[in-house]
Design goal:
heterodimer; A: about 575 residues; TATA-Binding Protein; elongated; B: about 375 residues; mainly alpha; 2 domains; 10 helices; globular; binds protoporphyrin IX containing FE; transmembrane (chain B)
């Protein structure tokens, strides 16, 4: 039978040809034309549900998810880069307004994107549940008997043999069972089916997707993320108040913070010294001593860029580093009123840094009156003549600390929160040097700057380093990983394993000689199917040849004659 | 020897290796060009045969039934002494698809054409080996895997694509027809690499030091190469399918179409080949994305953050999932599914070139 149907092939024609033999070879939902319902509300609901869980709509929703994800990759997103969003809105006010209304600055949490994936999610669940039941049903029933005309199947073979039909069928049954087919005798033929793992894999894959999506959503809702800058020698313990900044998901509770503390022993950074990437970090690591729980034992470890410290659900990442000059301030009488390592913020990749030293109490000026000191600091880890305002290398090759002291009221008691890196200059005065200029001096480690008229001194003792740690807790990431791995295995099983049926029909021909027909059917065409059929046929053929030479006693009514 | 002197020596060796690598890449381009001309010769000589198999199968000849169908597979030659004729498996194409024999390949059955085709393949093998040498020398010069920037990615990518092609040939798959298309794009890819994308060799920033990166990028390159082969087969399928449609509906295709398309495998074979290739590599692509997520989890503190590169990998993945779904959905097989496959490969390409060049994200710090 030759078909030359042009253009779009219609698979259902083929299936009808084969009748029941081709049915239930998968659990994919059967597609009907989307005819409109006639029954009232329930009819509509049913119709809607059937549409939602059909392959066609699943395909459509998948396409929509892909399409919907695109704008988020091209338009700045407030979740990843809020300043870029602000710039965009400033430069394109009208467009920015439209984008904002459409949620295009936070696509992946927008109403419409959520709507698409929730629909897909529902469709997925609505698809899997009935498919699973159907599959269980298929496992409990037996593969259908051979269709009338085996010649129509994708792979077919036939031969004649002197063996009895029953013998051939028995041999076929034994052979198929040995090859791990689920096989049984169905009238004049033996029906066998194999490759159920494909369906298992497919269902496992789709279920794993649900697990993955749920775990991801769970992680987003319960996650927390905080930053903490730690100077060498200092420590951190995981409570909300210790963080410099902190963000969390909608359902996060402070009690969820993993009990954990650590101390930064030493930060080590080495940098490329030559070539186009001069200055990019090579070694970049923080040596810490950490302990789990409230009273855990201290353990030493290294935290590197790709190697966070993991404690329970929490991961501690090394995200940045900078310098913290050690400063000693003395008052007019020579008493030490301040001594601390002051963390400075890097301005560029060569770690040119700025910050402020604030002496809030204890300092008395030359007249013995209490005052506050604020000292602007500007720091170059590698100072090169000719480049006085920017460091030329990130390492501490030739550190120079530039200080500008001020005295007066720093305004920290006014109740308005102040950045530790900025100086409010509204109520302070500068110091004047001998020439009446603003006092400002470059110090090398160990050097001291005298404040004029016996107002005290500031000493740059040396340099410590600081590291910034990001502590992230994202629960359920183990589930997400498990889901993802299951998905891969399910997918591989589903794509590489063929589910197929084989039939062997043996009947006595008109001339009294036994005619054996074999055919195979798979859900998707594969070169393996005819190969396997040929292999089986070969074995069966050899068996029927040898059996014929040692004829067994004939037994009466053959099952084949019933048909 | 002082430390500085040792470093200098090492730098000099590395520069030397980088120069060797560049020479090898240019040499491989020269040999690929020779291969290109040999493939052209194969196609030109092949056009001398004027059989018109497709037309024969689809018009009058088709009525002569089963004989013209897909080749019968002979099986089990295993030394049997049976006197009777052994059973032969007859393969029928699925209900609804056309019964068209596969074309003979670019040489069109012409002996001289076939010879040029073989020369072309030999030259491709040679060029591949030279290019591989170039990639390895590059890797040695930077003391890491050769995919820290787009230049390295491009040379590695085309090497792997050719390896996939040669591998399929070695497995005796019917893929010789791919040769010309593949070598043409490999030349374009290398041309782009050595002109626009060239980056002097250097080591990586620490965030790129991770064995998950090695796993992630190597599988990404391999998947890309295989998807690329699938995409070429899909495009050819679309052409061949319209060609067959035209003949089946009584039209007469142009001379050029006749000459070229008649020699390609049947549209059903091309379609099946494209599907198998895409489906086979899809789980690996899934794995690639997961490996990337694990790496991101280690490097940036979150395994998924909708970074443009991540987003486009996801879009590509969903597009291929659409394609696989489409093949299982009635009414979407054939051309519609093929369009989806093209779309999916388009996403892959955009993820590579588009995102690297036009969109800034965390992935862009590797330098173009
Ligand atoms: C999150 C969304 C989904 C994704 C990413 C997805 C992905 C996939 C992939 C990659 C395959 C190929 C595996 C194979 O061919 O065996 C597949 C197969 C399949 N999917 Fe989905 N799927 C999704 C949702 C759905 C939904 C909602 C349905 C229900 C209509 C569904 C029904 C099926 C069926 C029946 C198959 C097997 C087709 C066959 O037997 O050839 N999928 N899916």
């Amino acid at each position: 039978m030759s078909k030359t149907t042009p253009a779009t092939p219609d698979a259902s024609v083929g299936d009808q040809d084969l009748g029941a033999a081709g049915s239930q070879l998968s659990t994919a939902p059967v597609e009907g034309p989307p005819n409109l319902p006639t029954l009232g509300a329930i009819g509509w609901a049913r119709w809607f549900w059937r549409q939602l869980t059909s392959m066609r709509v699943a395909l459509l929703l998948l396409l929509l998810v892909a399409l919907g994800a695109i704008p988020g990759s091209l338009i700045p997103q407030s979740g990843t880069d809020a300043t870029k969003v602000a710039d965009f809105v400033k430069n394109n006010p009208t467009l920015g307004d439209v984008y904002d209304k459409l949620g295009l600055f936070h696509v992946y949490s927008s109403v419409w994107f959520s709507a698409i994936y929730i629909l897909l999610f529902v469709s997925l669940v609505g698809c899997i549940v009935p498919r699973t039941w159907q599959f269980v049903g298929q496992l409990r029933s037996r593969p259908p008997g051979a269709p009338k005309r085996l010649t129509r199947l994708p792979a077919y073979t036939t031969w004649r043999t002197a063996a009895e039909p029953e013998q051939v069928r028995e041999a076929a049954l034994a052979l198929l069972k040995k090859r791990r087919f689920r096989a049984h005798l169905a009238g004049d033929n033996v029906a066998g089916e194999k490759g159920y793992v494909r369906e298992v894999g497919n269902l496992a894959f789709h279920i794993a997707l649900i697990v993955l999506l749920t775990a991801f959503a769970w992680g987003q809702l319960f996650k927390s993320e905080g930053n903490k800058l730690v100077v060498e020698g200092d420590g951190f313990s995981n409570t909300l108040t210790q963080y410099d900044d902190f963000k969390s998901g909608n359902l996060f509770d402070t009690g969820d913070l993993v009990p954990l503390s650590f101390r930064l022993n030493k930060f080590t950074g080495t940098y490329e010294t030559t070539g186009p990437n001069k200055g990019t970090p090579r070694l970049y690591q923080a040596a810490i001593t950490y302990s789990e729980g409230a009273y855990g034992k201290g353990r030493k470890t290294l935290v590197k860029v790709n190697e966070p410290l993991e404690v329970g659900d929490a991961k501690v990442y090394l995200t940045a580093h900078g310098y913290a000059p050690l400063i000693t301030v003395r008052d007019g009488k020579g008493n030490v009123v301040y001594r601390d390592a002051v963390a400075l913020l890097p301005l560029d990749s060569n770690v040119t840094s700025t910050g402020v030293i604030k002496v809030l109490d204890g300092y008395k000026n030359a007249k013995g009156v209490s005052e506050q000191l604020g000292i602007s600091a500007f720091f170059l880890p590698t100072y090169t003549t000719g480049s006085e305002t920017a460091s030329t290398f990130p390492a501490l090759n030739n550190p120079v600390l530039n200080l500008t002291p001020y005295h007066g009221d720093l305004g920290v008691d006014s109740g308005i929160p102040q950045s530790v890196y900025q100086l409010d200059k509204s109520h302070v005065k500068d110091f004047k040097d001998a020439k009446g200029q603003e006092l400002r001096e470059n110090l090398k480690p160990g050097q001291t700057m005298k404040l004029p008229n016996g107002a005290g001194s500031v000493t740059y003792e040396g340099t410590k380093q600081w590291a910034n740690f990001q502590v992230v807790q994202q629960p359920a990431s183990g589930w997400a990983l498990g889901g993802a791995l299951t998905a891969i295995f399910g997918l591989a099983a589903s794509l590489f394993i063929q589910r197929r049926r084989v039939w062997v029909r043996a009947v006595r021909g008109d001339d009294g000689v036994t005619v054996v027909e074999m055919a195979g059917l798979g859900r998707s065409e594969s070169a393996k199917l005819p190969e396997e059929l040929g292999e089986l046929a070969g074995v069966l053929y050899d068996q029927s040849q040898t059996e014929q030479s040692t004829p067994e006693p004939q037994e009466a009514p053959s099952e084949g004659s019933e048909k | 020897m002082t430390l500085a002197a040792a470093t200098e020596l090492a730098t000099a060796t590395n520069e030397h290796l980088a120069n060797i690598s560049n020479t090898l890449i240019y040499s491989s381009m020269a040999v690929y060009t020779l291969a290109f001309f040999a493939y052209i010769a194969e196609w030109l000589l092949g056009s001398r045969s004027k059989v018109g198999r497709t037309a024969a199968a689809l018009t009058a000849g088709a009525k002569t039934k089963t004989k013209a169908k897909a080749p019968a597979v002979t099986v089990n030659q295993g030394g049997s002494t049976a006197v009777l004729e052994r059973p032969q498996v007859v393969v029928r194409s699925a209900a609804g698809s056309r019964d068209v024999p596969d074309g003979p390949g670019a040489h069109g059955g012409d002996e001289q054409g076939d010879l040029y085709g073989r020369i072309a393949i030999s030259l491709t093998v040679l060029a591949f080996l030279i290019e591989l040498g170039g990639v390895v020398a590059r890797a040695a010069s930077v003391e890491r895997a050769p995919w820290g920037n787009m230049y390295e990615f491009n040379i590695t990518f085309s090497t792997v694509a050719v390896a996939v092609y040669l591998g399929l040939l070695a497995l005796k798959k019917n893929v010789r027809w791919l040769g010309l298309f593949l070598v043409t794009t490999v030349l374009l890819d290398l041309g782009l690499a050595v002109t626009v994308l060239y980056t002097a060799s250097d080591q990586l920033v620490p965030a790129l030091h991770s064995y998950w990166l090695y796993i992630h990028v190597s599988t990404a390159i391999f998947c890309g190469a295989v998807f690329y082969v699938g995409a070429v087969a899909t495009i050819l399928y679309l052409f061949k399918d319209s060609y067959e449609n035209k003949i089946a509906s009584g039209g007469t295709p142009g001379r050029f179409a006749n000459s070229v398309l008649d020699r390609l495998p049947a549209s059903a074979s091309l379609d099946k080949f494209a599907y198998r290739v895409n489906a086979a590599v899809f789980p690996l692509w899934t794995f690639t994305i997961i490996a990337g997520a694990i790496w991101a989890g280690d490097a940036w503190g979150r395994y998924w953050g909708w970074d443009p590169k991540e987003t486009w990998s996801f879009i590509t993945w969903v597009a291929y999932a659409c394609y696989l779904h489409a093949r299982a959905t009635a009414g979407w097989k054939g051309r519609k599914a093929a369009y989806l496959a093209m779309l999916a490969f388009g996403c892959w390409l955009f993820n590579y070139y588009g995102v690297n060049i036009f969109v800034t994200g965390k992935h862009s710090y590797a330098g173009v």
